[in-house]
Amino acid sequence: MKQTSTLLARSLVRASISLGLGLAVSTAVAQTAPPTQPPAGTMQTAPAGAWTLQRAVDYALEHNLTVRQNQLTAETNSAILRQSKAAQLPTANLNGSQTWNYGRSVNPLTYEFQNQTTRSNNFSGIAQVVLFQGFQLRNTIKRNTLDYQASLGDIEKARNDLSLNVASQFLQLVLSEELVRTNQLKVNSDVQQVERTRKLLKAGSVAESNLLDLQAQQATDELNVITAQNQRDIARLQLTQLMNLDAAGQAAFQVEVPNLPDPDEQAPLSEDPNATYQTALTLLPEIKAADLRVSSAKSTVDIARGGYMPRLSFGASIFSGYSSSPITTFGSDSTARRTTFFVENPATPGSITPLNVVTYQRTQTVTSRGYWDQLNQNLGRQLQFNLNIPILNGLQVRTNVQRSLINVQQAQLNAEQTRLNLRQSIQQAYADAVAAQRKFGAARRQVEAQTTSYRNAEIRFNNGLLNGTEFNITKNNLTAAESTMIQAKYEFIFRRKVLDFYQGKPLTL
Fold it and tell me: Residue span of the signal peptide, if any (predicted)?
């Protein structure tokens, strides 16, 4: 009795857990990032009213932090692209300095040694432009453009992943709500059955064990209600976390349960997985982003190969300076002074001849030129071409080229892996959808058969022809069949929505 009475609880728990795992986006979109979990403390307050799937998806796309982080990454790549374009412009800078020299030093303007305290200023303006750099600037712009476009694809991929995650959790919550209602109906039926059996017991029509079995079954079904409510609360919490709602919004959150058709009411799946795959290749942003990163890696190879080529640049500069060191100048001639020297006449030995020498005393002046005068007098200009021809630099360029080629191969493998994951995801979603549709049909037939069996068992039990244990087994079999049917229904709905998503259709219920 104890083992059979817990069958319903176990089956319902397994149904909820298996559907939660089955609806995980990691299965629908293979090897994608885990569901977005915004940190606490930055959640948003939800507007009032019941939530539809489209409203929940739109709100999550607007407030989810992971999507916003991808947007900031794209803005960063945009700034890097602008910087690479600006690198083609000339550079121009102004420099100025003021220096104090103490003791023996070199005059920065006359380059003479001096032993005094001086103050000097130096000013310069320098402009430079790159004329040729192995096309590295052009290829850098090309690469950064591709990286920026790939980051835009990452934003769209993050939005798509979030939409699928929200759809998964939304259906999980709807499933949990239906399980709560189904189990509550079972409890209500148990209450009526226990009350009717209690009356039959008083009339002596049934044994007391029948009443005890029904009371045990009622307790089991009440436990199943609590379990289903817990699953519902967890599903609601996970959905509101994806939407980045605060505590008040989570507490008031309610979904609008859509009217979903049963899988057997729809036509069998006729989509060709290969055709869906070809359509998805042209639509999904992760495919485009992977191809863009392959092209970006090839541009990096071109940048690295530019290191083999010469570099030519042109520069111009203008400079001047001032020094407080005094400058010695000499004026014009002043008074003349005659001096007579007596020397021996070489023509007449022993005789002395007077020699008159005239000397002049010149005026010496120590001055310091004015500030602006020195700047004008010390003004200098320079034009310069710089040519750098690489010959041997420790094989750095060759190593960079080899590493870039390896990165190209890695990017190509990543692109192939992305395509393989997409193909496998579509094939798996199609197989799961077909299996769920077939499973639902079989489960519905099983429910119909179990319902008939349960009604027959109920009549026999009320007439005392069936004991409580056998009656509970029949009831648990019906409950398990209903749980299987509900599980198959929502699994088919989600897998079908995944296939629609790969075909570019909106996620609506």
Answer: 1-30
Alpha helices in 284-348 (DSSP H): 285-305
Query: Is-contact 499 276, C-beta < 8 A?
Result: yes
Closest CA to 313 of 223, 388, 420, 232: 388
Of 193, 237, 227, which is closest to residue 8 (Cα–Cα)? 227
DSSP 386: E
Strand, helix or coil for residue 95 = strand
End-to-end CA distance of the chain: 42
Res 411: pLDDT: 95
Under 8 Å CB-to-CB from 219, ≥6 apart: which residues?
none
Q: Looking at domain 2-30+47-88+135-258+272-311+393-502, which of 3.40.50.300, 1.10.238.10, 1.20.1600.10, 3.40.50.2000 is its CATH number?
A: 1.20.1600.10
**For helices 136-202 and 396-462, angle between their N-to-C axes, nearest 10 degrees:** 10
**In this structure, are residues 317 and 381 in contact, taking their beta carbons and an 8 Å threshold?**
yes
Q: Which residues pair with 127 in a beta bridge?
A: 92, 316
Question: Token pair for residue 287?
Answer: 């495919």
Q: What is the pLDDT of residues 458-500, one digit of tens each?
A: 888 777 777 778 888 888 888 888 888 888 888 888 888 888 8
Which one is predicted more confidently, 247 or 288? 288
CB neighbour class for 161 (10 Å; exposed up to 12, middle 13-18, buried from 19) = buried
Average pLDDT of the segment spanning 21-49: 43
Q: What percent of the chain has pLDDT over 90?
A: 32
Is residue 342 scored above 80 in pLDDT? Answer: no
Check if the beta carbon of residue 329 is closer than 8 Å to that of residue 367.
yes
pLDDT at 227 over 50: yes
Q: What's the distance, CA 184 to chain centroid?
A: 44
Q: What is the C-alpha separation between 492 and 164, in angstroms, rounded? A: 15
- Report which residue type is found at 124: S
The two beta strands, 380-388 and 352-367, are unpaired
350 Rama class: left (phi>0) / alpha (psi -120 to 50) / beta:
left
From the CB of residue 21, how many other CB atoms can be counted at a distance below 10 Å?
10
How many C-beta atoms lie closer than 10 Å to residue 435's C-beta?
Answer: 14
In eight-state DSSP terms, residue 47 is P
CA distances from 263 to 439, 479, 486, 501 (A): 10, 20, 10, 18
User: Residue 316, CB half-sphere, CA atoms under 13 Å: how many?
Assistant: 4
Which residues of the chain form CATH 1.20.1600.10? 2-30+47-88+135-258+272-311+393-502
Arithmetic mean of pLDDT over the chain: 81
